[in-house]
Specification:
Elements (H helix, E strand, L loop, with lengths): L14 H18 L1 E5 H20 L2 H11 L2 H12 L11 E8 L6 E7 L28 H24 L1
Helix pairs in contact: 1-2, 2-3, 2-4, 3-4
Length: 170
Amino acid sequence: MRHNKKRGMKLGTDASHTKAMKKSLVRALFENDRIKTIDVRAKAIRGDVDRVITWAKKGDIASRRLAIAAVGDKDLVREVFEKAAQGMWADRNGGYTRIMKLGPRKGDAAEIVVLELVTEPVQPKVKKAAPAAKVTKVVEEPKAEEAPAEEAAAEEAPAEETAEAEKDAE
């Protein structure tokens, strides 16, 4: 059951004011390409902005009508759709906004951020090179000088053990 569960962030106001504030922020972002606001508001409108840009990339009349309803300005929606038709976000599959933190506001210490539209093309990730063939450890044969020393050490060890065994027997 969803008793008293509302969708989205309330942002400290009633539902109608939150809706109007988000619509106004989305409109301001599309007009200016960059706005300064508080962190929670920027995070609240990210999804709305991404949705409008996705509709603009689709470009059909139904998407245009949805975008006009979401933004509330026909001319601004036309500009966004033109940018999308020119390929501004053609290579990008989401993530059309960037949030950069500026620091706390002096009066109430609310986190101030700059929310901007991302316009530069996507840099493809560099794939790591395939691992080289497995290197197997080569066991080196002992050199002629080391062989007698190892044999002598091996011969001394049993002699010491026999001497200790004789002492224990006594």
